[in-house]
Amino acid sequence: MAKTLSTSKVARLIGVGVASVVNWINQGQMKAGRTPGGHRRVAVEDLIEFLRRHNLPIPQELTHSAPRVLVVDDEPSVRKWIRDVIEEKHPDYEVKEAKDGFSAGELVGAWKPDVVILDLRMPGMDGLEVCSQIKAREDARNTAVIAISAYYSPKAEREILKCGARVCLEKPLQLEILLKELEAALRR
Fold first, then answer.
1. 76: which DSSP letter?
2. Whether 148 contacts 58, CB under 8 Å
3. Once rounded to an integer, what is the mean pLDDT over residues 23-35?
4. Topology of the domain comprising 68-187
């Protein structure tokens, strides 16, 4: 999750109108800064403090501290191998699996992963479409996408990077490179 949130994101998270959030900021009840363009931004810590002060529920999205990784591949053995590798190296990470693009979309919306490791070639909805849909979601724009493909080509890489992926890795995956890219995506 981003360290600062727009007023519309704050409003969606806590189920109020944007005008209410702006009023709380203007009245000094909620701390906020401004971007160079004049847009208000609320630090996650300040929002949590505001919610606690007013005895309001704190959305899980604000409090999860363990990095969340979603592995999307139509091959069960590949999903399991990637999950096992991540959990062995980083036992504190939360890792879930999706077998296709549709399941991935549901989990991105409900679970809010920080990183999606996404196969490009899957039946039904392919990785290009899944990545485009993730990046089109207001609540998932900051989700990093690491594309993987057994059918790697420079053209496929260009296409997935245009869709918003940060990198495209060739299968069979090199473990060190996958983990390095995952850690870099989480540091951003």
1. H
2. no
3. 95
4. Rossmann fold (3.40.50)
CA–CA gap between residue 48 and residue 52 (Å, rounded)? 6
- Give me the pLDDT at residue 144, please: 97
3-state helix, strand, coil in the chain (%, to 5): 50, 20, 35
What residues does each domain of the chain span?
4-63, 68-187
AA identity, residue 57: P
pLDDT of 87 > 90? The answer is: yes
**Tell me, what's the pLDDT at 61?**
76
Instruction: Determine the pLDDT at residue 139.
Output: 84
**The CATH number of domain 4-63 is 1.10.3720.10:** no
Burial of 64 (0-12, 13-18, 19+ CB in 10 A): middle
User: For residue 3, what pLDDT is reported?
Assistant: 77
On whether the CB atoms of residues 182 and 115 are closer than 8 A, the answer is yes
